[in-house]
Design a protein that fits this description.
The protein is mostly beta strands. It contains no helices and eleven strands. Strands 5-4-7-1-10-11 form a six-stranded mixed sheet, with no helix packed on it. A three-stranded antiparallel sheet has the order 2-3-6, with no helix packed on it. Strands 8-9 form a two-stranded antiparallel sheet. The protein is globular.
Length: 114
Amino acid sequence: MTKLNCDVTKCHYNHQSMCSRKAISVDGPHSFSKSETLCRSYVPKNSTNFFYEIGDLEEYPKRETNVYCDVENCVFQKESECHADKVEIKETHNRPGSKAHHESMCKTFECIDK
């Protein structure tokens, strides 16, 4: 499992920089920079999401979690999983017209030299 640090405080699953999901997914198949990646598991924190994906919640948030990755150009991605020792998900500013999950990015992303 990967150590996860998440500073996306607007996410329903974030609890003191830890994630209460059993696993997260990082997306951005054709990314060449950190800002082109995103946490696909992001769910906005609000009252209508109280029971959202309750099956993914664990009893206590944990520092370590499985990180599935669909970022082909990242040095840490192997067989759709992240193999970095530590992953940081960073909050970004919401851009006009963007979807909610675009408020996050994988700060750990490192582009493969091509």
